[in-house]
Amino acid sequence: MSFSKQTLAARHAVDTDQHHGAVMPPVHLSSTFSFKKFGEKRQYDYTRSGNPTRSHTADILAKLEGGAGAVITSTGMSAVTLLVNTLKQGDLVVASHDCYGGTYRLLNFLREKGIIDCQFVDYSNEPALKEALDKKPKLCWVETPSNPLLRLIDIQSVANRCGPETKVVVDNTFLTPHGQQPLSLGADYVIHSTTKYINGHSDVVGGTVIAKDPGDYEQIAWLANCLGITGSPFDSYLTLRGIRTLELRFKEHCRNANAIAHRLRESSLVDQVYYPGFGSPREEQLAKTQHLLPGGMISFELDEACDIEQFVGQLQLFSLAESLGGVESLIAHPASMTHAAMPAEARKTAGISDRLLRLSVGIESLEDLWADLEAAFQNCLSTKPTPRLSQGF
User: What is the CATH number of domain 246-379?
Assistant: First the structure.
C-alpha cells in the first residue's frame, strides 16, 4: 500500500521495538556496541559509524526526498563540508552568488587556500552562468530560494545543462521536502540544515545530505564516518520527533508568511518585499511549477523613514536572532548577522543591503503577528507623519 509523506513521517519506525513493544522507537545513546562474537560484528559497532536512532532519521529523510540514502551530520555546515570533501584539489565549484553566508565563507576560504576553485555566479545572468557551466565544474551549488533574497533558480534547467561530470547540489533548507523536491527535478544531492524546519523547535543543531544515486550515497556515508561529522543519537531523536509534524507545521508557516508578505507589500514603509513568486514573471511562474508550498521566509527593505534599530527593538513576537524554521517567529539583519562573513562588496553585488530584514514567520496567531509588526512600524517613526498601513486580515 502506498502512503502519503505525512503518514510515512508520522508512522516511521513506530512499533518496531522487538524487545519491549515500545510504540515509539527508543533512543540508543550508547557510544559502542558489542560484537556478536569474536570476528563478527553486528549491524552497529560504534556510533560515529552508525547508530540505530540516527538510521531512523536518515531513512525517513531519504524517503521524503526520494533519495537512495541520507547521512545525518552534526550541523548544517557539516553537511556542506561533507559534500566539499567529495572534491579533489583544484576541482571547480559553481555556486549561487547570494548563497548562505556560511557556505560562501567556507567555499571562499578553501578557494583562497588553493584547495578548490570556486566561482560565485548570478544564476539569473545567462551569459555568466553559461560561461561558468562551460568550465565543467565538479559541483554546481544551487540555493533556491536563496538566503536571504529568496531568488529562485530553475533546478531542472540547471540540471539539464550540466554534463555527467557535474553533480548538482540543491540546498532545500528553506522549503523542506514538503515544499520542493529537487531530486525529482534532476539534482544529485539535497542538503538541509535540519536545525531549521525539519527539527522545527530551535533545540537541535544538525544537517543532512541526501543522495539520489546509491553509489554517491555510499561515498558520502564513508566520508562522514571518516571525517567524524555524523550527528549525535539524541539530536537525531529530537529531529525525528520534529519530522513527524513537519508537514503540518510547514503548512502553517506558509499560511502565515504568505498573508504577511502580501500585507508588507501594501505598506508605505516597505520599499521592497522578497517572497517566492513576488519577483519577475519568470520567477512567478517558476514558483507555481517548482514549488509545492511557498515557504515561511520573507525578506524586505525597510524604508529610510523608519529607524531600523528602533523598528526591530519594538517587536515583541519576532525575536532578534539568527536561524529560522522554528515554531517561533524570528527577525534577522543579514548584513550584520547571517551574512556578516561576506565582504561588504560581495554583499553589495548580491543585493544584500544594510536596510534588509529577514523574517522567519512562525506558527503563532496570524493576527497577533501582524499587530506586532504594525505597532513596530508606527513606533519607529516617532514624530514623523503616520504612514498608511494595511489593517488586519
Answer: 3.90.1150.10
